[in-house]
Each structure stands twice: as structure tokens, then as C-alpha cells.
Write a structure and sequence with these properties.
CATH superfamily of the largest domain in chain A: Rod shape-determining protein MreC, domain 2
CATH architecture of the largest domain in chain A: Beta Barrel
Distance between the termini of chain B: 14 Å
Shape of chain A: globular
Oligomer: heterodimer
Order of helices and strands of chain A: HHHEEEEEEEEEEEE
Structural class of chain B: mainly alpha
CATH class of the largest domain in chain A: Mainly Beta
Number of strands of chain A: 12
CATH topology of the largest domain in chain A: Thrombin, subunit H
Number of helices of chain B: 6
Shape of chain B: globular
Largest interface: A-B, 49 and 50 residues
Chain lengths: 284, 167
């Protein structure tokens, strides 16, 4: 062992620790490397491709995670039928089990179907321009929550396509992978949505403030006549979101003395936590 | 497979399992409070086998976490590297202290870790700063759950190390 690689006692000159100290040069270079990555991601969105394809890698992992559960339920069914003593009770129990399973399955299907029906009929957009997609993943990132949806192969989804739920606008497509898409949610702090109010017909920009939080209307003059409880819809300006989608309801208006604008908070209707299925517009 | 590679395999496996649990197993209602098991596992390995786990592993799993969580690419990597360095620098003191004290130290570490996500890197959210009450409360709960998970994680990973890692 080289003396310079190890912490050495000054008294005896013998190595007292067998573990080499971490080299500061490596730490510094790792930090510099990370800072370069951060800057490149912020400035040039360099990691967007990596991010979208990382979800594709995760799809088989999530499938593999579900396998033991399926195997367990399969094994339980086999063993339960083998261990039954009475033939008749056995048959009846099996039948009962099957009926229960079928009932549960039907209930699950019915629930899924009603969810899908609700979602499908919730929008006025031509159904030819919509794709139903299932949620695969929702990240815990507070300010920039990321929703991943699965995508059928062969479907053409482009960046910035709107994503909807039965409660209204959810966000827009940020990255497109092979079998999944990443969605920037309206709760994301980077999200700005042009909206129009229902009663006063005033235009504004709604900005996200993080997961589980209210959004905020930006740069509203103190003379603007917004009122509490007013509904907000997408205005269609900017040609990213279709016009007339429900976004939220004004929950509070504050006139702060130290600000030249009104502070208007908006309760967002759509939460990615409560929904499993989403609609993606195709803009074709 | 030689012993060193085998050891490395088991360490990577445990970190990968922690990452998968972090990503898939928690209810979506607990997203903001759930403990970060990958970081707990990384801290454990840094403390238990500092010669086998280092910057490389911290960087790798940090970047994976960045891709999975949608945060700024490199931020988890940077924080994991810094925490790894702190753990390796002070692991002699940390290892001999009682578990309760270790949890208390980790509480502070996890709080600082979470608070670093409140920086507005994209410069888009006016008024967003570290005094954001909602975020601070969530960060405190996150730190609490993570530090409470330290003791079970510690015993679990120690048992795993004793069974699988051959020195």
C-alpha cells in the first residue's frame, strides 16, 4: 500500500486505516461534470431525448414487477383446488371462486369502461383527433411533476399536443418516446396556459405552482374585473391548446399593497393523481 | 465470477431494487412524502463498505433518478455525489454513533437535500424560494419519513451484506 493513498498515524508511521480516502480531485471532477449536465439541460434541454427513452426501458421493468403477483395468484388457484377434500364442496367452492373472480373482473371492467366512457364523452373535440392513453408513471418531483403515458405503436403524437382528462386540461406532451410519452402537467412551474374567464371574458396566463397546489394568473392589472368562483377555459391563443377546455376556477383574489398586480389563485380541476386514463389530441 | 465482481453485483442489485421501489411501489398519494430509499441504500453502502462504493455509483444512480423523476438532469447526480463525499469523509464518526443519532443526522441531510430542489433553475416561478411554506413542510415530512426508514433499512441492508458480501 502506498503511504500517500492512506491515512497514516503521525506517531507510528503505520497505516491505521485500511480504507483509502476518497480523492478530492475525483469529487471535484464529478461535481463539475454534474454542473455541466445541469447547465446543458437548463439551456439546451439536452436530456429530453434520454428522458423520453428512459420510460421505454422502464416498461419491461414494471411488467416484471407485476409478474410475481400474477404468478402468486395463479399458484394459489392451483393449490387451492388440489387440497380440497370433498368433491362436491370442492366443485361448489371452485365455482363460487370462479364466480367471485368473474364478478370482480366484471366489476373492474365495468369500472374501467365507465371511466373510459366518462373520459371519451367529456370533450367536444372530434374523436378522430383523440387518442386514449393509460398512465404508466407519475414522478414525485414537486415543482416539475412528470406524467408518463403509454402510447400505441404507430400512433403519431407530436410534442406540445394537449393532454386531457374528464375534468379538463391536464398538460401538454413534452417528450415522445417509442411506446411512451412524457407530459408537462399544468401544475408544473414551467407551464403557462393562455386562459379566458367565463363571465368577464378576460384573457390571462395561468402558471403552475407545483403538485397539489393552486395555479396563479400572472400579471393581472389591479383594474381587471375577475371575480372569485369564475371558471377558466383555454383561450386557444398560441395554437397549442384547443379552445374551450376547462382548466380551473378562481379561488381567491388578493390585492397586495406591495405588488402592482393582483394575486389570483386558481384551483385546478384536473389532477394526474386521481385519473388513470387520459386523452391526447393529435392535431391532425 | 471473482469475489470482487460478485460483491459489486450485489451492491448494484440492492441499489437497483431501491430505485425500482422508489419509482413504482409507493402510492401516488404519498409521492411528496415517500422516503428516498436509493439514497438511504447509497448512504448505507458508503458507511459500511466505503472502499467498494464511491463517486461512480453515486453519479450513476443519481443520473438514473434524474431521468426517472423528471428533475433537472444532473441535480440528483450532484447531490448524491456530495452526500457520498460527506459520508465517506465522516464515516468513522458516523458508523460508531447510535442509530438514533444517525437518524437525526440523516434528517438534516435529507432536509437539505430536498430543499435544494426548491431552487428555480429555469427562472420561471416568480417568488419561488426556500421560504415557500408548503414546500418546507413537505420537505420536513419527507426528511422525517426518510430518517425513520433509516433504522429498518440499516438492519435490512446489514443482513443482506452479511449474507451476500464476502470480503
Amino acid at each position: 500500500m502506498l503511504k500517500r493513498e492512506h491515512k497514516v498515524s503521525n506517531i507510528s508511521s503505520e497505516a491505521i486505516f485500511a480504507i483509502p480516502a476518497m480523492k478530492p480531485a475525483r469529487v471535484v471532477s464529478a461535481i463539475i461534470f454534474c454542473l455541466c449536465l445541469i447547465i446543458s439541460d437548463i439551456r439546451y434541454d439536452a436530456a429530453s431525448y434520454l428522458r423520453s427513452y428512459s420510460k421505454d426501458i422502464l416498461t419491461p421493468i414494471s411488467f416484471m414487477i407485476g409478474l410475481p403477483q400474477e404468478f402468486f395468484s395463479y399458484a394459489t388457484n392451483i393449490f387451492s383446488s388440489k387440497t380440497k377434500l370433498d368433491e362436491r364442496i370442492d366443485r361448489l367452492e371452485e365455482e363460487n371462486l370462479k364466480l367471485k373472480t368473474a364478478n370482480q373482473y366484471t366489476q373492474m371492467l365495468s369500472s374501467e369502461l365507465s371511466k373510459l366512457n366518462k373520459l371519451w364523452s367529456s370533450t367536444d373535440i372530434d374523436h378522430q383527433d383523440l387518442i386514449i392513453s393509460k398512465k404508466t408513471f407519475l414522478s414525485s418531483n414537486f415543482y416539475q411533476p412528470l406524467l408518463a403515458l403509454d402510447m400505441e405503436l404507430g400512433k403519431t403524437i407530436k410534442k406540445n399536443n394537449a393532454v386531457l382528462s374528464d375534468e379538463g386540461l391536464v398538460g401538454r406532451v413534452e417528450n415522445v418516446g417509442i411506446a411512451s410519452v412524457d407530459v408537462m402537467l399544468i401544475q408544473d412551474i414551467r407551464s403557462s396556459i393562455p386562459v379566458v374567464s367565463e363571465e368577464s371574458s378576460l384573457h390571462a396566463v395561468l402558471q403552475g405552482k407545483g403538485l397539489d397546489r393552486k395555479g396563479e394568473l400572472k400579471f393581472i392589472k389591479k383594474t381587471a374585473s375577475f371575480s372569485e368562483g369564475e371558471l377558466l377555459f383555454t383561450s386557444g391563443l398560441g395554437d397549442i391548446f384547443p379552445e374551450g377546455l376547462q382548466v380551473g376556477r378562481i379561488s381567491s383574489i388578493q390585492d397586495l399593497t406591495d405588488s402592482e398586480f393582483l394575486k389570483i389563485e386558481v384551483s385546478l380541476f384536473s389532477s394526474p393523481i386521481d385519473n388513470d386514463y387520459f386523452l391526447i389530441t393529435t392535431n391532425e | 465470477m471473482n469475489k470482487s465482481l460478485k460483491n459489486q453485483f450485489w451492491i448494484y442489485l440492492s441499489l437497483s431494487i431501491a430505485t425500482v421501489i422508489d419509482t413504482f411501489f409507493f402510492s401516488e398519494y404519498l409521492l411528496l412524502w415517500k422516503p428516498l430509499l436509493t439514497l438511504l441504500a447509497l448512504i448505507y453502502w458508503n458507511m459500511a463498505l466505503p472502499d467498494k462504493v464511491g463517486i461512480k455509483e453515486a453519479l450513476l444512480f443519481g443520473l438514473i433518478m434524474d431521468l426517472l423523476s423528471g428533475s433537472v438532469f444532473g441535480l440528483h447526480g450532484l447531490l448524491f455525489v456530495l452526500i457520498t463525499y460527506i459520508c465517506q469523509r465522516f464515516f468513522y464518526q458516523f458508523r460508531v454513533s447510535p442509530l438514533l443519532q444517525q437518524s437525526a443526522i440523516l434528517f438534516v441531510l435529507f432536509f437539505l437535500f430536498k430543499m435544494s430542489f426548491s431552487f428555480d433553475f429555469y427562472d420561471v416561478a416568480e417568488g419561488m424560494n426556500v421560504s415557500d411554506g408548503f414546500f418546507v413542510i413537505n420537505a420536513l415530512i419527507f426528511s422525517m419519513t426518510s430518517s425513520l426508514c433509516w433504522t429498518p433499512s440499516y438492519y435490512l441492508l446489514r443482513e443482506f451484506r452479511r449474507r451476500k458480501i464476502k470480503l
